[in-house]
Amino acid sequence: MSGPAGAAAVGTLLVHSPHRKGIVTSLAQLLSDHDVTVVDSSHYSDASSQMFFQRVQFDASISAVQRDALEVSLGAMTARDGMVWRIAYPDRAKRIAILASKQEHCLYDLLIRHRAGELACTIALVISNHPEAGPIAKHFGVPFHHLPITAETKQRQESRAVELVDGAGVDLIVLARYMQLLTPGFVQKYPGRIINIHHSFLPAFVGGNAYRQAHEKGVKMIGATSHYVTDDLDQGPIIEQATVRCTHRDSVEVLTRKGRELEKQVLATAVRWHLEDRVMVAGGKTVVFD
Amino acid sequence: MSGPAGAAAVGTLLVHSPHRKGIVTSLAQLLSDHDVTVVDSSHYSDASSQMFFQRVQFDASISAVQRDALEVSLGAMTARDGMVWRIAYPDRAKRIAILASKQEHCLYDLLIRHRAGELACTIALVISNHPEAGPIAKHFGVPFHHLPITAETKQRQESRAVELVDGAGVDLIVLARYMQLLTPGFVQKYPGRIINIHHSFLPAFVGGNAYRQAHEKGVKMIGATSHYVTDDLDQGPIIEQATVRCTHRDSVEVLTRKGRELEKQVLATAVRWHLEDRVMVAGGKTVVFD
Amino acid sequence: MSGPAGAAAVGTLLVHSPHRKGIVTSLAQLLSDHDVTVVDSSHYSDASSQMFFQRVQFDASISAVQRDALEVSLGAMTARDGMVWRIAYPDRAKRIAILASKQEHCLYDLLIRHRAGELACTIALVISNHPEAGPIAKHFGVPFHHLPITAETKQRQESRAVELVDGAGVDLIVLARYMQLLTPGFVQKYPGRIINIHHSFLPAFVGGNAYRQAHEKGVKMIGATSHYVTDDLDQGPIIEQATVRCTHRDSVEVLTRKGRELEKQVLATAVRWHLEDRVMVAGGKTVVFD
Amino acid sequence: MSGPAGAAAVGTLLVHSPHRKGIVTSLAQLLSDHDVTVVDSSHYSDASSQMFFQRVQFDASISAVQRDALEVSLGAMTARDGMVWRIAYPDRAKRIAILASKQEHCLYDLLIRHRAGELACTIALVISNHPEAGPIAKHFGVPFHHLPITAETKQRQESRAVELVDGAGVDLIVLARYMQLLTPGFVQKYPGRIINIHHSFLPAFVGGNAYRQAHEKGVKMIGATSHYVTDDLDQGPIIEQATVRCTHRDSVEVLTRKGRELEKQVLATAVRWHLEDRVMVAGGKTVVFD
After folding, report:
1. Burial class of residue B135 (count of CB atoms within 10 Å of its CB; 0-12, 13-18, 19+)
2. What is the mean pLDDT of residues C58-66?
3. Is A50 within 8 Å of chain D by CB?
4. Cβ contact (<8 Å) for B105 and D118?
């Protein structure tokens, strides 16, 4: 629930807006006027899009009245400058839902990291179309829902998933090697709030069987990519990627084994960054304050 | 001119053939029959294609008569088993031609590595369509030819390049960020003997402006790929690849700078492996005995 | 239980000996004489120590009589040439014991990899001086033994561990972040059969609190090292190492989190290589046929 | 001469001071009062030392009068808060001296990167105790001085080097695999202004023959470290490190070849960061705003 350096009670403000001269100073002034103590801050001006991004970490020990007043002032900047912002306070942990299928490695990985304190969130529930995930969720004390899917039941089960997710007050949906395509309706309901892991170095090898595609191409490295889900398959804004060497000796099975390592790390990193309010999306790309 | 462990006077035999039971033993027997002392050996059986690959390093201090007899026996295996083979002896250094354009980093890199003894070859000549490469070649004592290219002169200059390459007895042509497309005629003349460096992690970002493509996509890693040149643009058998992290902060210029590092290393590694007879091509992919 | 390429029923022969001319051919001949079909083979001659190493994978579908005859012939080579060898057949899975303490990440990691089929072995038991590992072992269906250790009970509990390990017919002991120093007696009982993971890039930062040592030094990368355990603390033959970048922003806690990734991977890789009979030790160093 | 995003005419202010509440806001206010437009800014509060670090990039198109006034105000903060600061303006390129010995790779690398525009500086001179560097410096149009060193002449030649360096108005001295130990007098004259490249992953393998030490230890990765030079051999504040895999097959010669890659990159990165005013030293460690 805290920043990476173990600091206590830190809030995070994320803003982006069209760039204009003096914006850094204005924002510093606004925070100062509200008696908000800045703990850490970084910004980034994108030359090609003329957009400005800033992440401010501040001492969150301010009263509810101060919080409200701060939000009113930020709202005024939005009206005046087209600034988009959001604030996260440490006294409310984000809630996530994990959707899994038969492959267990990413599910296990997220649950273990959470248990080790690496992911500042509550894992509200696990949903899987396979029953095997049940005992895993149970081992970690997380509610589990088995929603098997056939062509016939897909729409109904997805509606059920929405009910569960919304009923649990979920902030972020993590697709942990979830092997079902989500419908556009589902995706559009949670913009910027679904993170997927794809088993290739996108944009290479879109779609299924990416390790087989890589093997057939004879590449010397394989990769994994985590991204926000949009309606375009495997085309959403990329959050994180990693690669590892492979050789002609590596069968599809070996590539799959090597790739699991990447998938786990890349997904967990993307989820952690999202939970720590480090990621903003603009123009189909991410800005990550790491 | 020696193997990586500094061994002296080592010859290299590369073979590939359809797999059959006992092939390792037959080849060991054949070499033994010819009194060839094996120094190092590795093989690889490809399960999907049922192909067998072997690289044998042997004590090359055998007489010309022995060499001839060995080749006769290998020829018999070719006739009987469909085996493809080639032998390289250390007393003949391979000769390479470097084709360059305006970007100098790969050209410099290859020349410096050669000077440092990393590349066991003679750099027979440098050809560029820009005059700036002239003083560089001269500094390293390598013959230089300036062949400027326009739409009109392209065909003629390429013929001139063929004359120069063939006149110099060149074994390998290295495209060191050579920005001209080669004609099919040129490519087909040197099968498996032209190595290119492409500034992306293929198969992503084929063609020109790969760093701009990467920037627009918002990837979190960029790559470089060295491959043998075939008639399909950027589709030839991949020899080596590498990647490096990038962030949203990296402009196209920064990606280009970071990419230059990859390009230099990946091209030099591919060239070195080729010169050390570590690479075989089959089925559009490479087997690299590194 | 099979090699990495999914081949069925493959045996592995590891040999090392003082180098002598013709050794590759002799060994090929010996195997051929016993009608052993070589599937894969690699060797390595160490120039500085004048030692020869070879790993041969062969079709293990030979009779018990053939196996015995093969071992007799290998025994003769040992007598004559000072060759050291061992053979592993796929019909007997190796058995391992995991020793753990309070940190769970390596324990979980090994159990999950085993469940996913990455580690060709039987996990015979888990021993920990902390009770928390019990439910974890149980979740994966592995026998668990809680041996709490105090200064007073250490000797007795170690004797108990020896009984358990020996009683379970264990081939390899894996120290999965086991935070107790083993006595020389224990170590000497299992030469080349105990693998440890140390949380630094050895030989830097020997001993405890390696991440704190790294933080105080201000290094820009941290590492992890797996090695066979010998009587010299953190000095045994290194099997595998890995590193990851860090920055001045990384507190000891962040280094610890980053390091856990390395520890898991490096330990799992070392264990997998050992189980696949890829590692030989000579002169205080390892030869790894990967 | 510009920041990484190609921005024009950007000045850089670096500050560090004991941390106190409100310091970010005070500094923002100070800059605002002087009509300085912040382009980019990042800061870092070190929890263990309670130190605060900030790097501000600002629009440098301010008058000489404004510059003076700004420095007066910063001076007042120094007096009041113990703040240490320095400013760099883009209209004055830093000047560097390269000290080299027989190994050429780092020398070539720096000269080529400078020529490619990667290093925002003037290379004022090259000094070497070997004559071979002369033609290299000449090829790049850089003044060269040959100062051969014997036990007898060492002191005198070092004094000559000081004269040359000071006469050329040098800001930074780069030891590009300079194989001579500098005297304490020399080192103390240029605190935080001499960058060295060491051919190991420090603190492992201090001193000479680091690749041989690594080979004897049997490590599975080698590294390189760039650091500011202090009186303690190879113990100065680390700026950058990198590592690469190696295997038992790699002789000392191969390690040396692989290590050259690391040395080039790590040294060039450290020099670039220093030239771009990204590095501050405190408590024997560096803070790098990359």
Report:
1. exposed
2. 92
3. no
4. no
Orientation of helix C23-33 relative to helix B23-33, angle to 10°: 130
Closest CA to D81 of D51, D55, D57, D58: D51
Q: How do A94-100 and A121-128 pair as beta strands?
A: parallel
- Chain segment A199-223, per-residue pLDDT in tens: 999 999 999 999 999 999 999 999 9
**A37, A40, A45 member nearest D40 (Cβ):** A45
Among A109, A171, A234, A250, the active-site one is A234
Count H helices, E strands: chain A?
8, 13
User: Residues near B190 by Cβ (< 8 Å), separated by ≥ 6?
Assistant: B173
Contact C127/C159 with Cβ under 8 angstroms?
no
Q: How high is the ipTM of this complex?
A: 0.93
Nearest CA to CA, how far is C258 from chain A (Å)? Answer: 10
pLDDT value of position D193 = 97
Non-local CB neighbours of D191 within 8 Å, separated by 6+ positions:
none
Residue holding tokens 């000071």?
Answer: D166
Summary count for chain B: helices (H), strands (E)? 8, 13
Answer yes or no: do A240 and B247 touch at CB < 8 A.
Answer: no
Residue type present at position D272: R
Please state whether the peptide bond connecting residue C203 to the residue before it is cis, i.e. omega within 30 degrees of 0: yes
Q: What is the crossing angle of helices C105-115 and A105-115, to 10°?
A: 170
Give residue B8's pLDDT band: very low, low, confident or very high (50, 70, 90): low
Mean per-residue pLDDT over chain B, rounded: 93
Q: What pLDDT digit, counting tens, does each position of B178-224 carry? A: 988 899 999 999 999 999 999 999 999 999 999 999 999 999 999 99
Q: Which of C105, C136, C276 should one mutate to test binding to chain A, selecting the residue with the greatest count of A CBs within 10 A?
A: C105
| Residue D242 with chain C: CB contacts under 8 Å | 221
CA dist A274 and A192 (Å) reads: 10
C-alpha–C-alpha distance, residues D222 and D243, integer Å? 5
Cα A158–chain centre separation: 20
Alpha carbon distance B76, B84 (integer Å): 11
CB C120 within 8 A of CB C1: yes
Residue among A128, A174, A165 nearest A267 (CA): A174
pTM of the model: 0.94
Buried b / exposed e along A167-191 (16+ C-beta atoms within 10 A):
ebebbbbbbbbbeeebeeebbeebe
Low-confidence ranges of chain D (pLDDT < 50): 1-7
Q: Does C104 touch chain A (CB under 8 A)?
A: yes
Name the residue of chain D whose CA is nearest to B251's CA. D5
Residues of chain A contacting D47 with CB distance shorter than 8 Å: 5-7
Position C279 pLDDT exceeds 60? yes
Average pLDDT over residues B45-63: 90
- On chain A, the residues whose CB falls within 8 A of the CB of C120 are none
